[in-house]
Amino acid sequence: xKNIKDILPHRVLTEPEDLFCYGFDASSKMGRPLxxxxxxxxxxxxxxxxxxFKHGIPLVPRGAGSGMTAGAxxxxxxVIVSLEAMNRVLEIDDKNLVAVVEPGVINARLQHMLxxxxxxxxxxxxxxxxxxxxxxxxxxxxxxxxxxxxVTKDYVxxxxxxxxxxSVLTTGVKTYKGVVGYDLTRLVVGSEGTLAFIxxxxxxxxxxxxxxxxxxxxxxQMDKAATAVSRIISAKIIPGALEFMDRExxxxxxxxxxxGLPGDAEALLLIEVDGPGxxxxxxxxxxxxxxxxxxxxxxxxxxxxxKQRLWEARRAISPALYRVSPSKINEDVVVPRGKIPDMxxxxxxxxxxxxxxxxxxxxxxxxNIHVNIMTDRNDKEEYQRAEKAVREVFEAALxxxxxxxxxxxxxxxxxxxxxxxxxxxNIMLMKGIKKVFDPKGIMNPGKIFSAGR
Length: 453
Ligand SMILES: Cc1cc2nc3c(=O)[nH]c(=O)nc-3n(C[C@H](O)[C@H](O)[C@H](O)COP(=O)(O)OP(=O)(O)OC[C@H]3O[C@@H](n4cnc5c(N)ncnc54)[C@H](O)[C@@H]3O)c2cc1C
Fold this sequence. Notes:
- The protein is of the alpha+beta class.
- It folds into four domains: 4-82, Uridine Diphospho-n-acetylenolpyruvylglucosamine Reductase, domain 2 (2-Layer Sandwich), CATH 3.30.43.10; 89-207, Uridine Diphospho-n-acetylenolpyruvylglucosamine Reductase, domain 3 (2-Layer Sandwich), CATH 3.30.465.10; 211-318, Alpha-Beta Plaits (2-Layer Sandwich); 326-416, Alpha-Beta Plaits.
- It has 15 helices and 18 strands.
- The protein has helices spanning 16-21, 42-55, 107-115, 133-139, 146-149, 184-188, 222-234, 247-256, 280-293, 304-315, 317-324, 340-354, 380-399, 418-421, 424-437; strands at 12-13, 35-37, 59-62, 79-82, 89-93, 98-101, 119-120, 156-162, 168-172, 197-204, 206-207, 211-219, 241-246, 267-275, 297-301, 329-334, 357-363, 368-374.
- The two termini are 32 Å apart.
- The protein binds flavin-adenine dinucleotide.
- Flavin-adenine dinucleotide binds next to β3, α4 and β10.
């Protein structure tokens, strides 16, 4: 008879309070693991996996638990493998512009270390102050800078991974090029802990942009803000970030913590232009003129403190909305940039028909809209209406040529909707790939693919 503490002696937590704390993430789902394991090395991850493989114990990799789709939430009799203690920055190679990190490194910590060396790692999820790079790789996380710089997958050169049977292998390269065999790195990036444990990450980094200018543009009409986005891109300016917030979002943020955002605007665009010192002021002026011509009130953050404060306000959106509605349903659909006004119209219509408040913000530049259905789980009837609204939100995004998730992944909460976007052939092929990595189905079962489908 197996003793679960033998999975990795001295690294196992089984106290009820530990099981509670590792039972949830930033979604509203909750579970209770059988135990929590906290390895400190690849060898320990490998030994824990080999034990679980032998005894058929389901494993759930976990970073900081900030995921929005319950990817790190344990289902029945699972063991959480928390990678948070593997948190060393192993190397910053400024000659070759490569950083090597363990998975538990917090995103912002790497950002600060790189900045002090004049370097830059673009992926900047709004959770960067607390989410781990392992979680970012597993979710293929993006952030405001994705418009110009891409998402996590664009920076992962290679990985060290531990397969569910405990074997350790390295994928990809440590160079900027490499095409030997199938691209296993890309396969593992975004696999949401369903294929392997990520135990080491080889990242490409960039030189820090010479200059940044941050603008806040307040519009009286959402359509005008959307037009401004199209005109900025048509003017061949790709800002480092181009974020939008609707009126309700701004109000929730100001109630949470007064940042001085204009509460009477229908829509705000938070825009950052970055690049060589010579071209940035010119691009910022052009953006200000485009937004001004559409009736926006434009403010330029003229010192580091005001810039930081604006980005702090942006990062406060999620906590602010959770404060208003702790069980809100949060989706992150993407539509082609030019279709944002159509999507926002559909959302208004869905909100009216289902009598649920919908609050929107997101990455206007790449069409990624964070749709927040503000509902209270204790009100069963309202919650059911909200859940029905979700399906229509996805239908609307797909009808406009979009996708049901831009960065939060599928996890548990969206597994039931996978077939809305992917064909049965696609899903079958993906399941086949999973079987090769995970023949016993012990890696994060129930995530991405719903049980029995
Ligand atoms: C306030 C807030 C703002 C956010 N903003 C953004 C945003 O702008 N952009 C964005 O993309 N996301 C955002 N997110 C979602 C979330 O922070 C990211 O998805 C992040 O990448 C998750 O990292 P984590 O360390 O918390 O991972 P967890 O939540 O612990 O895990 C997420 C998934 O990754 C798997 N996993 C974790 N570590 C590993 C590993 N080492 N090996 C294998 N699998 C692993 C887990 O099994 C799970 O499926 C936000 C979340 C919050 C709460």
